Structures are given as C-alpha cells and as structure tokens.
Model the fold of this input.
Amino acid sequence: MPYPDRFYPVVDSVAWVARLAALGVGTIQLRAKSLSHAEAAAMVRAALEATARTGARLVVNDWWRAAIEAGAAHVHLGQEDLAEADVPAIRRAGLTLGLSTHDDMELETALRCDPDYVALGPIYPTTLKVMRFAPQGLARIAEWKRRIGKIPLVAIGGITLERAPGVYAAGADSIAVVSDVTQNAAPEARVRAWLGQAAQAA
Done:
C-alpha cells in the first residue's frame, strides 16, 4: 500500500479518526491546534488506539514530540513547525516525515530534509483558513512533481471529489481532503465515493 494513500483525509479529533478508520481509510492525518503538550500526547495515544486494529496509518500534524512519545510512526510538519523541529530526533525515532510547501523557497527547504512526501497547497481557494499564498492551480502540481521526482506529492486545499480526477491527472500522488469530508452532509457516503475515486486513479 503506497504512503500516503491516494485519498488522505485531515481531521481534528479522535472521533473523526475512528470514524474514518472504520470506513477503511488507509492514511489519516490528525491536525489539532491550541493544545498543551500533555493534551496533544493524550490525543495522539487515543488516536493510535482508535486505529490499532484497522490497518489505518495515523499521521500526526505538528506535534512531533508527542508523536514520538506516544509511539506514532508518521508526522507531518508545516514550514513554521519545521523551523523549530528536531528533524534528526524525528528520524532517530523512526518516524516518516511529510512536509508542507507553498513556494520555491519552501520546496528547497523541504527537500533538504529528505522528506517521505511533499505537500503542495492550496490548489484551489479554500475557506478553511486564511492563506498567505494564492491558489497554486493544476499546472503547479505538474511542475512540483517534475521537481521532486519519485518523492510522493500530496495536493491539498479546496479539492472536492469532483475536482479529484484533474488533480490526479496533473501529477498528484495523493489528495489531502478536509472540508469535502468533514463538512459534507453525508460524510460516510462521501468517504466511500472518495475511496472509489482513489482506487480508479491508482
């Protein structure tokens, strides 16, 4: 199974992690903000328990110390968190490392860390959070993929199920999805549709 999976939801609670794992999602990112270290560590442990018997891989966003402490296997860092992270310690602990990028300088910074995947975003406009960067568009996906070669490329930001075929066709190995699942009126059905779409794109 490739890492990360073609469909890569990003959620902010253990309840969502458990819900997605039960549906057969292979890679799930837990991204929760404004926590203390103790709260983050407890949350990561609970999420790992929720995925333990499902085969789903849990990726911990930003809380790399808590991830190491809880025995997680995967971590994802944004550029600001990367600047403060101890990458050698993450590697010594055996964790995979995914990194966010938005421009040329950030891509160069990421590649110096020999990441297990590179994320590019936002591909489309997103209302989820205020972004310092304009939408990247499909052409940027193709450019990034040429530049990173065999490293998996994750596209994120404003991507819906309907837009997914074009994103995969542009060169994305994986699509990270937030609101198209968590804000959907029927999230279970949406996840199943995403899994079917990802299987077709494999």
Observations:
- Residues 23 and 188 are 7 Å apart (CA to CA).
- The chain has a mean pLDDT of 95.
- The radius of gyration is 16 Å.
- DSSP finds ten helices and eight strands in the chain.
